[in-house]
Amino acid sequence: MAVWQGHSPELRAQVRACAARLRDGFAASGAVPVECPILLPAATLLDLYGEDIRGRAYVTSDALRGEQMMRPDFTVPVVQMHMNGGAEPARYTYAGEVFRRQEEDEARANEYLQAGVEIFDGADPAGADAEVFALIRAATAGLSLRAATGDIGILMAAVGGLQTSEARKAALMRHIWRPRRFRSLLDRFAGRAEVPPTRAALLAAADPFAAAGPQLGLRSREEVEIRIAALKADADTPPVSDREVALIDAILAVRETLPFALEHLRDIAVDMPSISSAVEGLAARAQALETRGVDIAALDFEAAYGRTHMEYYDGFVFGFYAEARPDLPPVASGGRYDALTRVLGRSAGRPEGIPAVGGVVRPGLVVELGAQIGGES
Questions:
Q1: Do 164 and 274 fall into the same domain?
Q2: Residues 133 and 172 in one domain
Q3: Which residues form the Class II Histidinyl-tRNA synthetase (HisRS)-like catalytic core domain (predicted)?
Q4: 268 in the same domain as 159
Q5: DSSP codes of every residue in 141-160
């Protein structure tokens, strides 16, 4: 299903009807239907995602409201709405268009419909994870999709437990969703990568400003001095041990069915206790999934899953894929985003946030795949 704008009115109506059925199904499970604005304050999204979002979102300006972005997803506005006065626990559902630039893949739509469900409930996070997964699985039943799961929280716990400086751990945390940059930083912090000649010269100079020309750019001298001091402090920090790097590599290499993955991760936790709590959270989720009728013995788990396209998730992540159509994006996906609620809760006076998890389905792909197999959408 390519560009939404090129579809016939009949097909558009089918996709909208599918989105409405999905939303109604989530509502029948207890979720409250909500509407979200299409235009969102750009500053909020830039704070969350960084400037990278500019390359993937449609940005406009308003004389009164300033820079705005067309809605790239529903999670952020739903979280904002909830943190501004929603009661707990709470379940919401929605359906509508999202907008994302697709300059590198013309086959993918830049405007398409999403239908989803979000759960805000701190009483039983594992149960909420299992509930969302089961709801999304039921919504896509009959399409013969492969489910993939992961848990970004395990890698985050591993980074948090490293025997290194807080600055280095913060840098690694920022780039967990960028595997190449994460690997580059880890190698540098482990002393496996050569220091660039320009940086080595800067660190060796008694007075880095002695040979400097006139001050250019927006940074003040004070800001540059702070940056140089940070680089010197990093250079004096002992390297991350080979043992810890090997343990992180072992975590990232876990790719098995859920019971075997859990066993493997428990073995790793013996040598890396910092991940023990996250691993036991995975065990609780596995039990909750099994209680909801999920065959966990056949459920794939990849510790590295979700690192390239799920930037605000910080725990359970999942996706449903049409294996016969590798050209398609996930038909459905979702995960846990507790940290996002803390960030967006600050402006609402609720910096403690609340555990939350959600999932979305792409009705256009449901219709397309349903037509291909002769099933209902």
A1: yes
A2: no
A3: 9-348
A4: yes
A5: TTS-PEEEEEEHHHHHHHHH
Q: Is the pLDDT score of 2 beyond 50?
A: no
φ, ψ for residue 258, nearest 5 deg? -55, -45
The reply to whether 75 sits in an annotated binding site is yes
73 marked ligand binding residue:
yes
β-strands 255-257, 32-33 pairing: unpaired
pLDDT, mean over the chain: 87
Q: What is the CATH number of the domain that holds 122?
A: 3.30.930.10
Q: Are 361 and 350 in contact (CB under 8 A)?
A: no
CA gap 99, 36 in Å, rounded: 14
Give the chain's radius of gyration (CA, Å).
Answer: 23
Partners of 62 in beta bridges: 66
Domain carrying residue 300: 148-180+241-321
Among 79-83, 107-111, 360-364, 370-374, top mean pLDDT goes to 360-364
Question: Where is pLDDT greater, at 337 or 69?
Answer: 337
* Token duo for residue 182: 């994460």
209 is in an annotated binding site: no
Q: Are residues 248 and 281 in the same domain?
A: yes
DSSP label at 349?
A: T
- Strands (DSSP E) contained in the chain are 32-33, 39-41, 59-62, 66-70, 90-99, 111-120, 146-151, 255-257, 300-302, 316-321, 332-336, 356-361
Residues 369, 15 contacting (CB under 8 angstroms): no
Would you say the C-alpha torsion 324, 2, 10, 361 has a positive or negative sign? positive
The 10 Å Cβ neighbour count of residue 92 is 23
* 132 lies in the same domain as 10: yes
* Residue keyed to tokens 């190698």: 187
Question: Are 258 and 376 members of one domain?
Answer: no
- Annotation-wise, does 100 bind a ligand? yes
Whether residue 74 is annotated as binding a ligand: the answer is: yes
**Residue 313 known to bind ligand:** yes
Q: If pLDDT is split at 50, 70 and 90, which confidence band does 3 have?
A: very low
